[in-house]
Specification:
single chain, mainly alpha, 0% strand, 93 residues
Length: 93
């Protein structure tokens, strides 16, 4: 499988930056997935560090305009699987 060519922008020039408003009644998981998807696209499709920095700044501004608080824009660190025991065996759920 081939990946799409790298570029400096992941949106069309006509994109309006309208996403779920954070104050809407959509589930929090859906609003968090907006943040995750935008950050993932930036990492996968923007080629240079400088362009990534510019794109992440744009993402923050777009999300802030849609009332997303700053804590939602942080990329979460990988969590440990809580169902794994110290021996590495999975516990039944």
């Amino acid at each position: 499988m081939t990946k799409a060519p790298k570029s400096s922008s992941i949106e069309k020039h006509t994109h309006t930056d309208q996403y779920f408003n954070f104050n809407s009644h959509h589930p929090l998981e859906h609003k968090r997935s907006v943040v995750h998807t935008l950050n993932k696209r930036c990492e996968e499709y923007v080629s240079t560090k400088e362009d990534k920095k510019t794109e992440k700044k744009h993402i923050r501004q777009a999300l802030a305009a849609n009332d997303y608080p700053a804590w939602t824009m942080e990329v979460p660190k990988a969590r440990k699987d809580k169902t794994t025991t110290p021996t590495g065996n999975k516990t039944p759920r």
